[in-house]
Specification:
291 residues, alpha/beta, Rossmann fold, 6-stranded parallel sheet, 12 helices, binds 2-acetamido-2-deoxy-beta-D-glucopyranose
Length: 291
């Protein structure tokens, strides 16, 4: 008789626990892009609250506006510090949704954090394979400079103190990019280093990688960089699957794809500053990954 009661109690306890798991949505952490901050993500937070009521949404309040130009490895360190307590509290893990430059910060954070509990990583229009284009953003940072000159400014120690320079990927100056860019080629394993293997393992702790972008973005150049494609030396776009870092599985992309955990979402008609406030984008590409 006593065992039956014990089993019954255990079953009830299990059911309560299970309910708590099924009912709750994982916390969502949002990392903003260049020149913006938490304010620009209020609409997105509302979308999440409307579709998944009760979700704890945090837009990390760091490196806003002009501060977003600070060196990326330093930013990665401090974003990590801000995110850590949220991860620790969430037994079931969290989701990470990162916009534009923020996507690179998150990518780096995932690779350099052992045993993180980030479940799904959503990169919303991020220059994941680099940036090479004349845009308003470039003019704000380096007025009067055109894309073919930027390597002179960026690929040296002083230039590397500006975030944009750390993912500036000039296809006509590959050796200089590999030698002098201290962020992107290191992160993507294009320049060899002894942490590549452990960084790949760390990155592969995510459950899903979701890449969102589209041809009307107007800022990310080429726009395929949001899907890990990039220019070759003739400025023709080589898609992700033909990139060397994919073929060599340098940081885990090919493994994710083989595991069935890579999702690409392509949306037309979306300008760069509209990605996070477009409800169609949210329903088609984001909502289902935030459970
Ligand atoms: C989320 O939605 C509920 C209503 O469903 C509302 O009461 C609450 O204030 C909203 N929270 C935020 C942060 O918008
Ligand atoms: C990919 O692998 C080839 C052959 O092992 C090697 O020569 C090349 O440097 C690697 N490239 C990257 C980006 O890992
Ligand atoms: C929102 O996204 C849809 C689907 O990609 C697109 O057709 C539409 O133009 C977008 N609207 C805005 C204002 O970005």
């Amino acid at each position: 008789m006593r065992t039956t009661t014990a089993i019954l109690l255990l079953l009830i306890l299990l059911m309560v626990l299970l309910r708590a798991c099924v009912d709750g949505y994982r916390p969502v952490i949002i990392v903003h892009g260049i020149f913006d901050g938490p304010k620009q993500f209020q609409t997105l937070a509302l979308f999440i609250n409307e579709t998944h009521p009760g979700t704890e949404v945090t837009v990390v309040d760091l490196y806003k506006h002009m501060s977003s130009l600070k060196p990326l490895w330093k930013q990665v360190q401090n974003f990590h510090r801000a995110i850590e307590p949220i991860m620790e509290k969430a037994r079931d893990g969290v989701h990470l949704l990162c916009f534009s430059q923020g996507g690179l910060i998150c990518r780096a954070l995932l690779s350099t954090t052992p045993n993180h509990n980030i479940h799904n990583f959503i990169a919303l229009s991020s220059p994941l394979a680099g940036q090479y284009g004349d845009t308003d953003y470039l003019q704000q940072v380096f007025p009067g400079c055109v894309k073919d000159m930027i390597f002179l400014v960026c690929y040296n120690r002083v230039g590397q103190r500006v975030s944009i320079c750390q993912y500036w990927n000039d296809p006509h100056h590959r050796p200089s990019y590999l030698k002098n860019n201290k962020f992107l080629p290191v992160l993507n394993g294009d320049t060899p280093h002894d942490k590549i293997k452990s960084w790949r393992e760390n990155f592969l702790h995510i459950k899903k990688l979701v890449l969102i972008g589209g041809p009307d973005d107007g800022v990310i150049t080429p726009w395929q960089s949001s899907h890990f494609g990039f220019y070759n030396s003739k400025e023709r776009v080589v898609e992700m699957r033909n990139q060397e870092f994919y073929r060599n599985d340098t940081f885990g992309l090919k493994t994710l794809s083989a595991r069935g955990d890579l999702s690409l979402c392509l949306c037309s008609g979306v300008k760069h500053m509209h990605w996070h406030s477009n409800f169609t984008v949210f329903t088609n590409c984001i909502e289902k990954w935030l459970t």
